[in-house]
Amino acid sequence: MSRPPRLLQNGKMPLAALDQELAAQFDIHRLDLEADRAGFLAAHGAEFVGLVTSAGIGADAELVRALPNLQVVSSFGVGYDTLDEAALVAQKVRVGHTPQVLDGCVADLAFALLLDVSRGVSAADRFVRRGDWTRGRFGLQTRVSGKRLGIFGMGRIGSTIARRGSGFDMEVGYHNRRPVEGSPHAYKDSLLALAEWCDYLVVAAAGGAGTRHLVTAEVLDALGPKGFLVNIARGSVVDEAALVQALQQGRIAGAGLDVFEDEPRPLPALLELDNVVLAPHMASGTHETRRAMGDLVVENLKAFFATGRPRAEVPWSAEL
Ligand code: 8YV
């Protein structure tokens, strides 16, 4: 029997069982357990043909260049903003990721945050636990159903969020790099126009240099004092300092955030605000979805070693 391919894994997978499954199926080495990472890579980097990583950990140019015989990356996660495109394309490395299988759960959490921040579920829970109910009534909240849902980024996750919105009798509009053919929803030709139009602005756009800080103070002002922001995409898309100011000054009504510019350290000012619901980047974190993502991480590797292509490839890898 031929030897299994030698793979490098640069961190724990966000599904514990997957670490063992990978170790059982491949000749895998854990870089994160090496005390002298640079020394290890200098001595052994050329041995590895594959790299297993996650969207959270990524693969920077230095790591990619330290693996001169790298042929494939399998990344746990749909986002590929932490994988160094230039270095990977230069070495003609095929890159697999885990799209589609997480769309439902990410859209569910977007809606959980939207409902929570608008109806005050977490704030009401704190109110009851503090015993404040014996002293008075909980404040009135904002109705969700029938309102305008603005989606920034109408990819697979954005369209799944749109379907959730239709179930809440919401009117859906979106902004995207270009209009989506056949979409029944209203296209707004700028993010500013979308923010002006909607009651809830949900960020579902990919991260990376092209979308960095597109949600500016101006966009937040367009959303306005009755508008809510929800972000389940990447913290980098929102200017977090501008968001804090807008929340503190009541220039927007509230925010539901699963992602932050510096994870796991949201700006401390966010923790002080009652009109903000915070989650620890957990949108894909259900047993079912993480299992499906883990299966795709393995399938991408197997497909690559059988056919030369991962099953689900990131766009710039598919163009190689
Ligand atoms: C994961 C994500 O939690 O899929 C993504 O891009 O950000 C999340 O689903 C993450 O990949 C784990 O590292």
Give an overview in words:
By secondary structure, this protein is of the alpha/beta class. It folds into two domains: 127 residues, NAD(P)-binding Rossmann-like Domain (Rossmann fold), CATH 3.40.50.720; 176 residues, Rossmann fold (3-Layer(aba) Sandwich). The protein is built from 13 helices and twelve strands. Strands 8-7-6-9-10-11-12 form a seven-stranded parallel sheet, sandwiched between helices. A five-stranded parallel sheet has the order 2-1-3-4-5, with helices on one face. β1, α1 and β2 form a beta-alpha-beta unit. The two termini are 31 Å apart. Bound molecules: 2-keto-D-gluconic acid. 2-keto-D-gluconic acid binds next to loops. It comes from Comamonas endophytica. InterPro entries: D-isomer_2-hydroxyacid_DH (IPR050223), D-isomer_2_OHA_DH_cat_dom (IPR006139), D-isomer_DH_CS1 (IPR029752), D-isomer_DH_NAD-bd (IPR006140), NAD(P)-bd_dom_sf (IPR036291).
Shape: elongated
CATH architecture of the largest domain: 3-Layer(aba) Sandwich
Q: Helical amount among residues, as a percent range? A: 25-40%
Using the coordinates above, name the CATH class of the largest domain.
Alpha Beta
What structural category characterises the helix and strand content?
alpha/beta
Number of helices: 13
Bound molecules: 2-keto-D-gluconic acid
Radius of gyration from the alpha-carbon trace, in angstroms: 21 Å
Name given to the CATH homologous superfamily of the largest domain: NAD(P)-binding Rossmann-like Domain
> Strand arrangement, largest sheet?
8-7-6-9-10-11-12
Number of domains: 2
The whole-number mean of residue pLDDT values reads 97
Poorly predicted tracts of residues: none
N-C termini distance: 31 Å
Q: Largest sheet, described in full?
A: 7 strands, parallel
Portion of residues in beta strands equals 15-25%
- The number of strands is 12
In sequence order, what are the helices and strands, one letter per element? EHEHEHEHEHHEHEEHEHEHEHEHH
What quaternary form is this?
single chain
